[in-house]
């Protein structure tokens, strides 16, 4: 204790405990890679404070938007399995490897995307290209909609899975309602004009290019 000049085991009985200052919490690598127009939401809290997360759109995302590549550790054995996420494998140097993500510091935000239980809720398709896995939107994604993925037809054959995954409704547990956040507009960096969709912003930016 610097006040009474004594070395003590535990806190000082005369001057009391020290004021403890905690380090700032640093987001994981996976959370830091999340694009600005996407957000993570807690859908469920399980035992041991385990969070079940989902990826949601904050703005309109156009069809044929590609995300990736998926970041994970190449492994011959899957060490981390979650029934709500896709199992992913790739061909590398003639071998077939799992894309394993045992923790958030060795993956990117794509590890949080949950699998689609049927065609209606599927918004993304997963496929392999040049030894990497990418997700591409199969339809426009509206704000506050969760991104959910399933295998592309050829990749489903590679993964020895069905081309369309349909889970019986009786097995589907309803999700709690999610509070909607304000939709963020797409902003033109040249003039500050705002647009509801990325496509409208692209069309507008063509005007600036023509003027140049």
From TrEMBL:
Alphabetical keyword list: Metal-binding, Transcription, Transcription regulation, Zinc, Zinc-finger
Alphabetized Pfam families for the sequence: PRDM2_PR
Ranges of residues in domain SET: 38-152
Entry GO terms, CC: nucleus
BP GO terms, sorted: regulation of gene expression
Sequence intervals crossing the membrane: none
SUPFAM superfamilies the UniProt entry points to: SET domain
PROSITE patterns, per database record: SET, ZINC_FINGER_C2H2_1, ZINC_FINGER_C2H2_2
Residue span, C2H2-type domain: 186-212
Entries under Gene3D superfamilies matching the protein: SET domain (2.170.270.10)
GO molecular function, one term: zinc ion binding
Translocase recorded as keyword: no
Protein's name in the database: PRD15 protein
Organism in which the protein naturally occurs: Cettia cetti
Gene this protein is translated from: Prdm15_1
